[in-house]
Every structure is written in C-alpha cells, then in structure tokens.
C-alpha cells in the first residue's frame, strides 16, 4: 500500500512546506526558495570525502588569485597547470579569493582590469578552462568575491556561481572546510580574516593551538595573507599558500609584501590509517614581480 505524504516527509520538510504556504509563494518562487535553502550551510563544516585509496597523494595548492585585478598573474596560473600535468598531480586545492570583487573602497575601481561581477566571472571561466582535473575550492564570505553577497546584501553566492561556470572547479564550502581521502588523509582549507602578524608564522601557530585534540586535520592550508610559510606544530602540517597576485596598492599602503607562487605537495600515509601521515614533501614554487 502506498504511504501518505505525511508519513514519508521529515520534520524539516514539513517546516519548509509550512514556510512556503505562509509566504504564499508561486511555483517559480517556491523552487528558488527550496534551491537556496538546500545549498551549503555556511555555519558548519561540509566535509568532502574523496575516493582515493592509494597511500601517496600528490597535489598542488594555491590561492588568492584575485582574477579581475590588474596585478593578477595569469602566467603563474598557466605555469602551475603545466607543472601539474608534468608531475601528474591528482588534484588542485584553492584557498579562495579567486576573483577580486568590488569593494566600494575609494580608488579600488582604478585597480581593476575587469569591472563588475559579470566581467570578473567571465574572466574566471576563461582562465579555469585550462584545468583538466579537479580544483577543490573554498571561498571567503567576507572579502573579495564574497563582497558580491555580503556588501549591500546583493545575494550572489560566489562559491556556487564559480562552480557553475567552470567544469573542474569544485566548490566545497566557505571560509574553512575539510577534504578527507579514503586513505585517511585529512586536509583543511582555510581563508581567515584580519591582517598579517609581525611574525609570519604567528597566525597559523595560534590557529593550530586553538584546535581541539580530537578534531585536528593532518594538514592546514591557509590563504588570505598572501604569505608563504611552512610549520609543523602539534602534529599538524601548517602551510600559508602564498598568492597569484602581485603586491596590490592596498598592500603597499599598509607595508606588507605578497609572496607569489604555489605549492607542490606529496603526502604519504601509513598502511594503517590510525598512524596517520608517514611523511610530507612540500615544495614552494616562487615567482617575482
């Protein structure tokens, strides 16, 4: 016997239906509403699991491309992708601020190569056509591409929009999210806020110290600061990923450099997952202005 609708829908489904009824939405509006609330929950981790049984994984890490700014370096992206093909990496990871955004700050518009969301998104799509394997990516909610949502409540969800426009860009969430491979390797991508500390390693060190013992990843890769750094602390490998953007006028004004380049990383896991990482080989490929 077929079950009644009331018997198969969940409590959460019922709440959604009630909300649709209260709002007196049309069918088109209801579909848009369901799509919006069914997206990524920005307030919590959205752990992405990847089918990868091999003990050794090799990948490239990058971030802060700022496509749309005059100081974005497309030559580095091109070289990085060629390097990935040559070394046969398994995937790429991207720590956010993929496009420049529109800040509304006085003078910022004169720094842009592409003005407006449409122009920057089209430029992004053209650049990311070059990839031939997954680019697991996070984006920042409160800066650059995220400004298209957070400033003036414009409502453009940048991560989902980038995912829609590029075949190999795979959006996994905002600000701080985990990738977990079948071989046990747990990698956290992070895009924090604030400025660079006096000591480049300080922000990563304090973040690792803040993590609960049972929830630590094997590796944290961090964007935002445009700095290159590696440290090993509390059995966590911490990497500041650098940037694909030269020092901007804003960075010059506040007196902080941009470390331009990307990382090629190889992680070897123990045969027994519980033993974690056996060794890490991390190589930074630097570029100059």
What do these coordinates show?
This protein is of the alpha/beta class. It is 28% helix and 25% strand. It has a 6-stranded mixed beta sheet with strand order 1-6-7-8-10-9, with helices on one face. Helix 5 links the parallel strand 3 and strand 4 (135-139). The mean pLDDT is 88.
Contiguous runs where pLDDT drops below 50 for at least 5 residues: none
Q: Strand share of the residues? A: 15-25%
Number of strands: 12
Walk across the major sheet and give the strand order.
1-6-7-8-10-9
**Gap from first CA to last CA:** 71 Å
Largest sheet, if any? 6 strands, mixed
Class computed from helices, strands and strand pairing: alpha/beta
Mean pLDDT: 88
Helix content: 25-40%
Global shape: globular
Please give a handful of descriptors for the protein shown.
289 residues, alpha/beta, six-stranded mixed sheet, 12 strands, globular
Describe the secondary-structure layout.
Blueprint: H1 5-8, H2 11-23, H3 27-37, E1 48-50, E2 56-62, H4 74-87, E3 91-94, H5 117-128, E4 135-139, H6 147-150, H7 158-165, E5 169-174, E6 176-181, E7 186-190, H8 202-210, E8 219-222, E9 228-233, E10 236-241, H9 249-254, E11 261-269, E12 277-286
Parallel strand pairs: 1-6, 2-3, 3-4, 4-5, 7-8, 8-10
Antiparallel strand pairs: 2-11, 6-7, 9-10, 11-12
Short structural summary:
With 289 residues, this protein is an alpha/beta fold.
């Amino acid at each position: 016997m077929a079950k009644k609708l009331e018997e198969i829908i969940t409590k959460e489904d019922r709440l959604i239906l009630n909300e649709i009824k209260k709002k007196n939405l049309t069918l088109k509006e209801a579909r848009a509403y369901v799509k919006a609330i069914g997206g990524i929950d920005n307030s919590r981790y959205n752990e992405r699991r990847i089918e990868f049984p091999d003990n050794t994984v090799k990948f490239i890490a990058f971030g802060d491309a700022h496509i749309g700014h005059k100081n974005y370096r497309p030559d580095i992206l091109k070289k990085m992708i060629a390097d990935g093909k040559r070394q046969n990496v398994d995937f790429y990871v991207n720590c956010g601020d993929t496009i420049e955004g529109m800040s509304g700050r006085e003078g910022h518009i004169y720094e842009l190569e592409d003005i407006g969301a449409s122009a920057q998104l089209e430029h992004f799509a053209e650049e990311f056509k070059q990839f031939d394997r997954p680019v697991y990516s996070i984006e920042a909610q409160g800066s650059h591409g995220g400004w298209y949502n957070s400033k003036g409540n414009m409502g453009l969800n940048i991560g989902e929009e980038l995912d829609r426009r590029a075949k190999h860009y795979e959006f996994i969430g905002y600000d701080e999210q985990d990738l977990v491979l079948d071989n046990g390797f747990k990698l956290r991508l992070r895009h924090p806020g604030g400025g660079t500390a006096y000591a480049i390693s300080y922000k990563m060190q304090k973040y690792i110290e803040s993590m609960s013992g049972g929830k630590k990843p094997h590796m944290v890769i961090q964007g935002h600061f445009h700095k290159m750094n590696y440290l090993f602390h509390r059995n966590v490998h911490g990497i500041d990923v650098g940037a694909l953007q030269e020092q901007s006028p804003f960075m010059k004004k506040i007196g902080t450099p941009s470390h331009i380049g990307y990382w090629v990383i190889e992680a070897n896991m123990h045969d027994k997952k519980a033993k974690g990482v056996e060794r890490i080989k991390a190589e930074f490929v630097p570029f100059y202005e």
